[in-house]
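Risk register update: the risk that structure generation would not scale has been downgraded. Supporting records follow, first protein first.
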Amino acid sequence: MATILVRKLDKKATKEKVVMMLSAYKQLKKIAGEEYVSKVTATYSFEPRSYTGAVNKSLEKHIERKLTAQKMVEDIEKAIELLREKGMAKAAKKADRVAAEGLTGVYVNGNVAAIVEVNSETDFVAKNAQFVELVNETAKVIAEGKPANNEEALALTMPSGETLEAAYVSATATIGEKISFRRFAVVEKADDQVFGAYQHNGGRIGVITVLSGSDEDLAKHVAMHVAAMKPSVLSYKKLSEEFIHDELAQMNHKIDQDNESRAMVGKPALPHYKFGSKLQLTDEVIAQAEEDIKAGLAAEGKPEKIWDKIIPGKMDRFMLDNTKVDQAYTLLAQVYIMDDSKTVEAFLESQGTTIASFTRFEVGDGIEKAANDFESEVAATMAAALGQN
């Protein structure tokens, strides 16, 4: 009986059928577990239609009902255990597979928000209704439980009553691919702050921003910018000097490569970037840049009385040209996609708004995917078929 139940659950384990089965299981357990049953079974020795004592027909039917319920409970418990073991075995077989597709999940409730990344092996499974529901339930449970790390997160209880860890084992068994809970972040805000929540590209990218002096619409627009422009940190103050130096060197190396191509068609060479971040633009550097601009204007013969109108624009150009690392990696230095005449920092200042934080998850970010060498696979298959090693 237990094996039959396993087959039914395993082949057609829609959520509705599992819920119905578990509901029936609870009812049967309630019937079979009544104190009255234990008293009756202690008094009478049960064989089919044979009892050591006078039992009327009504009691006989009642006892048979109890015993049938007990037997069904035992069968269902065995089926559940077999499914659990089968699911764990399937999950174990898939443990070494690379799961780099999937979805992000975002959940906001009051002053708490959560963002999660859940991985699957293929983007096809990421569109599966069961998978999507699992992601959304995970985000909600994380927001409500506020775990400190993945270990605590895996121990949280899902709506099904099982732990988050067990839910992913079950999902791997029923969906047929490795399903893994990769990471999460819990974000909290003050009463006078607002969340901006946004998911892009069908949920492959998820963002949560926290703004002060703003409304949810602006906070969401900033979240959309974060999704599109992929900043790593909030401001240049979060970058190290070593990182800036290395990134600037790579940018100048690319300029060298471009200059080789330009030389071939007779175009002038582009200059190297001298600086890459506000962190490098000391007061002395900025003062010298202004003096250089004035000297240039004098050399061009520009009247000194109009310099005040020209210098601010040229200084803005100097800042843009010498903060390329900031623009690539820091949110506040990036040109705002909703107003390309301003950086994010300048735009927020114009709105009387500040941003406290942002969190951005992109599915598969940092996961090394296995390269598929189709030619080698075909060659290996043919060699095996011909008996060659």
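Supporting record for the second protein:
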Amino acid sequence: MYYAIGIMSGTSLDGVDAALVKIEGRGIETRVELLGFTTTEIPESLKAEIKRAVKPTTGTVDLLCSLNFKLGYLFADAAKAVCRESGFPIEKVDFIASHGQTVWHIPKPDGEFARSTLQIGEPAVIAYETGVRVISNFRTMDVAAGGEGAPLVPYSEFVLYASPDENVALQNIGGIGNVTVLPSTGNMADVYAFDTGPGNMIIDEVMQRLYGRPYDEGGKVAASGVVNAKMLDELMSHPYISMPLPKSTGREMFGEQYTVAMLDRWGSLPSADLVATATAFTARTIAEAYRRFVIPKWPIGRTVLGGGGAHNATLRRMLGEELPDVKVVTQDEIGLSSDAKEAIAFAIMGNETMYGYPSNVCSATGASRPVILGNITPAPRKEL
């Protein structure tokens, strides 16, 4: 049995999630109890640095070097905060599982560039500041094994949500949308997952540029607008939508540069219509992914939404309209936490690493074989 903290900072930059959990067992015998959850705000100045770092034109090596340590301190603060708010002594934590902040992701070889991925947030800083062992860099071993290093959450989803009674789709809507398909067979080899396309990333960028707000709370702005069919059709022509599996994407494909180009072309539309159409784009990419890659193989009657997008009522409504035969519910509606899901997932993967077992799902990432994920940074030696 371990006490652990899972830390997740996603592409949406809406905060650093920290989940304090008690984990017993491993594999399908894993049992997880959520003891506490917090979201630590990312300071605006640090957000600006991250956005500079992920742009090829501004992401300099000195910026990346500095940011790696700054994020380490932020993640350490997040770990301390969840313990403090839960009234749990950090000295009792056995390990911290930190995803890190993705700055670039090359899922397939591209010209002179090798298949690779880079997450930063120095684990030595986290270990030193908290006095706790840190497991980090989860994606790289899967990439080394020929996988895309994403998505990784299918392992925890199989452990926690697989049902012998129905085929279930688990749809996370963070900065990027990703789905895990859990067939009722109960066979890990049948599980697969992939990124459906943009999640909140484009919506948030539009809101920041047009309204000066970090996101569309509850989908209220989108609800006040009208979806522009011509614009939506053009957005849906993006080659990622029809790309075969396995596939993954990120800010390098649907980030600031993409959104700026979109606004340059369609900026004459009313602002609310642009938000509505961006929201409809996310809903339709998810639905189209299901129609192409999920329903023909494993008909599903239910999809469970997690991540920040699960709180967007307009997005949920649009997704329901796109998939009238699929019941759309949220993690919270079934008694779980939409916000804590990914942080818990990395705690579960860290648990497998502690036991010395693999936690990648090859049918999801394309890796040649199961591998143990993550690098372990020991806690600093206590003073004698």
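The longest strand covers residues 31-40. On this basis the risk owner (M.S.) recommends closing the item.
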